[in-house]
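Reagents: none. Just compute today. Mitochondrial chaperone BCS1.
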Amino acid sequence: MPLSELIASLGSNPYFSAGFGLVGVGAGLAALKKGSQFAYTAFRRYAIITLEVPSKDKSYHWVLQWITAQGQRAQHLSVETTFQQHETGKVSTSFDFSPSPGVHFFKYKNSFVRVERSREKMVDLTSGAPWETVTLTALATNQQLFFDILNEARHMALEKQEGKTVMYIAMGADWRQFGFPRRKRPLDSVILDDGISDGILADVREFIDSPKWYMDRDGVASSEERLVFMTTNHLNRLDPALIRPGRVDVKQEIGLASRSQLHKMYKRFYPDQTSARAEEFADRVIGLGQRKSIAQIQGHFMLFKNDPSGAIENIGNQDISLIKMNELD
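Predicted 3D structure written out:
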């Protein structure tokens, strides 16, 4: 039988036609599936960007706080409570919200961002906290979007700390922020003898403004712009190796109260009083014949918070004053 007749007979066979049709449909579906997988892979590669931020990274908490600020309508949150009990017994608490583990969505600069916060069962042996990761996925092609997010998160975090004192505690090999930033005390609230505050401040500024000078002499192992303040009531009991030159650069004795300090402290506690009254207070304290400590002076003022005249008249009063005659310091 010629080949042309064989093909014609097969084409007229209904069973063969049905089988061929099924094969064609199957091949078409397989090609469609393969094409869709390829298209999805290409879409993820060229149209979606992903950023992973582990909990060990410095920016992790910045990103969490920034996400919280973006997702004002988020209904699934985690809370971190800071509890502090003061020596007076007063309790202060503050609450800090962050996105809970799971998936969150928000829009940033005309791009939809998917946030997934995952928490592993494994824990960090140095801190005891579980491993966590925040993954940001955005429908975009430019990584600049993530740079903008990180910069904005950093700026927001540092803005909360600007002008405030941040305390850290040791957590394994890391330093973790303790509590919330506190308002800085003004420098003039620390009353030292004339010239001491200015001298320390000038030395600190000179150190911070001269990083290259120290780098050229100490090498790459130097601790740039790092200041360590140590205080002691018994300098002679310290190991000489701890306070040798090169390890401790500046030593300053903070002694008993001078006339200038007595004057400044009186004006600090009673700002509406005249300088003449402050001088009278200083004269009376010095007239006792024995220098007093700043702590004694402050304790005396605490007994006469609203009585500037009583603070002067009761100097040397053996019954109520903390500034007494012939008291050992």
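The mean pLDDT is 77.
Action item: order primers for follow-up constructs.
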